[in-house]
Structure formats: structure tokens, C-alpha cells
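Same chain as my last thread, 553 residues:
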Amino acid sequence: MTTGFSSFALGGGATQKQRISYFYDEDVGNYNYGLGHPMKPHRVRMCHSLVTNYGLYKKMDVIRPKRASARQMTRFHNDEYVDFLYRLTPDMVGGEGMSESTKHLFNLGDDCPVFDGLFEFCSISAGGSIAAANKLTRGESDIAINWAGGLHHAKKTEASGFCYINDIVLAILELLRYHQRVLYIDIDIHHGDGVEEAFYTTDRVMTASFHMTEFFPGTGKLEETGIGKGKNYAVNVPLQKGMDDWSYQNLFEPIIKHIMEWYRPGAVVLQCGADSLAGDKLGCFNLSMKGHANCVAYVKSFGVPMIVVGGGGYTIRNVARAWTFETAVLLNEQLPEQLPYNPYFEYYGPEFRLDVPANNMKNDNTPEDLNNLKAQIIENLRHIPCAPSVQMQEVPRDYTSSDDEDEDVDYDTRISRRLADSRIVPDSELSDSEDEDGRRNIHDANGSIRSSSPAVGSSRAGRATASSALHNFAGSPSAGNSSPNILQNRKAGSVAPSDTAPSKGSSAQGDWGQAGSTKSTKTTSNASNANINAAARRGRAVTAASQRPQSTK
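reply #2:
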């Protein structure tokens, strides 16, 4: 049956160019839920490989996001639950580290197993969605993509349905700091219960979920529309198995059109679970790749800032195909059906084509049932006010990485280069202050640096020994002279060190001679230098050997 998809939905058509950001962490494919588990994070790496080999990365900003911290996760999740995930290891399962009651408390088991690197996997997924939201709120992108996100089942205090941390809720909370209203759309075959539950009592977030009825997690009935201020702001579209492209399009587009025109969201989050595709291991819909992508194209056509995340999908070769194709749709690019060679090329045999066709599965959704369902949903939407407003208030400050700078620091672990660079204070931020005791660097007529302090030691640290050693190194004529003439000593061939901390790798006392020495056309003899350095390291007066007449070249 002809679907009537627009050329734009297939990756063509002329539209206004939009700025697109693509978030990807190469480590996401390293994690494994366990042997025989249907959830495969490796599918995100396969998708990225296709995106790269098709050359799509050249047309968008590819960003490796900062991983979410435990503190960021607690913006939605319970502190005790996040702390538990942070400390959880496979060794704790079945041992003294975790009782059966604890496993039940946090809903860990076959669906949500404990695997190595679980918290890091969650931080990658959540970090990408939070970074995508921040990219939109700063006005730097119109569309942000995070295929590692979309874990919509996770609850505030427990895991559920292969999901541990709800990255979608965390991203929406970021968007709500700047936008009065946010729309969440879910085209996963499973009901997006975790996101709906989080915003079930508010009118600032509308959730619209298109899912199979009487399927995991068993929620998402038509009459579940929210409570309190959130009444009628939860839209559930329960469907029967065998849903095909034509039926899906004729239901999805009218409902979304009505919501967009009536609710007028400031931003949209679209969850693109690929388990609604035909042939999925756990799903039983019959959507083709192009039918699935038509939803992405239609939401994009409204021109509202949008975050696109992944979700379910358990036939991983089809997941990679679909998300690659939808990336091209967002970029408004046409892709050849013949797949380019890539490291996972053998996964796509025997056809090796960018296509997921529908099959001959029977559609249990009759046109009459779909029309009645659509009419009931639109009737529910008429009970909500047009574009509910929010009281104006000051926007909360942006989250910065410095907020977690001292969180769980392990001083026995080598820090990353990026973190080390972030701790370097720029020279422009240094200034004289009261604790410098009036000392400052002064440039002489020749442009050289000398110190205005009579004692060039480290008075700030209060080290008398180091101060004495540095004082002698500055070039005192004799060991007993307490007020050396630095300029006169400079003429003799030595240079006084600037009043700064020792160089990296040197001790506060032992390497003052090296820290203060500079290149000069006039140098002291080797014997004199050796004696001076030795005296500086010992922190006492220069020996008699260093007082011998200096020779210059």
C-alpha cells in the first residue's frame, strides 16, 4: 500500500538549513548487559560507524559529551538510589554486598542486571542527553541527537525495563529552565512510563506515547491522562500488533499536529525506539524504516528546537540502519541504499542495503478502531487551555563542571589532561594581594624582571630555610650580608628569580636554584654554580667556595 511519504521524509526536499549537533561517546559500545540479554549498547557504535562512512559527520557538529555526574543524576533520581548504582559492582551480586531485599528494592534482576561499568554506561547516556539540552538552551543548535539516550523506563527510585537512569527526564528538566512548555513524543513500541510518571502532575510537560497495548510495562491506557494540574497532559495511544506505515502515519500526524498547534511547546524531545520496526526481536509492529523515519521528519517540519534520542531496538542491524537513515533525514540528506564498507559490514548481509522493509504481518488495527481512538484523544485535548503560561522568574544558574570538582576525588588515580588543564589559573587572573606582603615583579630599563622585595624568599609559605637559600642565591656578596644589592649582583652575571612558585616537579626548597636561573650571556663558572646550588638545597649560607671571584666569558 502506498504510504504517501513526502520527499522530505525520505531525505530530500529543500528546507531551511538547521544547525545540528550529534553527541557520541566511543566507549558506549564497550558495555555488555550479559550473555543472552537482548539489550546491546554495541548498536550505537554500529550506527555511528554508518554515520561516519556515509560522510554525515561532515554536515553536523560531532561532540563527545561530558559524562553525567552523580550530582546531576540526583536532579531527578533519589540520592540513595544513585549512590547505590555508583557503588554497585558484579561482585556484590549474590554475596554479602547485596541482599535479596536490596535487589527487589531497586528492581534489579534479569531485565536490569548488574554488569561491569554500569554506572559509567548510565553517565554516558545521561551526559549526552543533558549536553544536548544545554546545546539547545544556549541557542547553539536547532536539533541535537543522542542515540545513546532514550532510556524511558527508569523510575525515580528504581531501574526498569533495561533502564537505570532516565536521561530523558534529566534533559527535560534542563529544557524547563528556559522553556515554559516541553513536549515529549515516544514512538517506542513500549509505553514511556518513566517519563510520563515524572511529569504526571504538571502542565509544563506534555507526554505523547504511541505504543502497543497490554505489553510491557502494562501502563499507558487511553484513560490515563494525568492528575491535578497535569490532567489531560498525558496522551496515550495504545495500539494493537501489526501496526503498518499507512495506519501509523494517519494516526500520528493528526494527533501531533493538534498538540503542536494547541500546546505550542518551546522544545520537543523525540524518543525513536526502533523496536517498533518490522522484524524486531521483542516488538510486534510492522513499520518499515521509512515509515518510522516519517515521524522524525514530521516533527522536524514544525521548526521547534528538538532533541532526538534512541531507545529500544533489539535487532541491532536494523537499529543501526534506522537511526542512520533518521540522522540523514534530520540533515535533509539523501543516502544511497548500497551500504558503504565499514567495520561491521558483515552484520548487514545478505542484502547489504540501507533498508528495513515491512513484512506480511496481519494488522490487527482496523480503520474504525483507529478513527475512534483518534477522536477520543483529540476530544481529551480540547479540555486543556491553549498554551498554558508559567509565572516569570529568574532562570536558575547553569550547571558547571566546577560544581563536581571536589566530588569523590581519588588522589591515587591519575587525572585526565582536560581536568589538569582546567585547574591552571590563567596569568590574566593573577594580581597583587595583601598576602603578597607588598612584593611584586618590576621590569627594569632593559626589560628584565627583578623583585621589589628585599627578601626574595617565599614569605607566603613561611619557610625560613627556603627563604634564606633563595636570598643567598640572589647574589649576596657575602654570607653575612642581610641586604644584597640585586641590581649590582645582576651586573655580576647572576639573575634573581621572580617571586613565583617553583617550577613543576621541583620541591619548595631543593630546586630554587634551578627555578630562579635564566639564560644569560654572562654565566658563572661551573664550580661556583655547583657550590651555589648545593648551598641552596641545604638551605644555609653560601660556603666560602662560592665567594671566590667570579669569572665571565
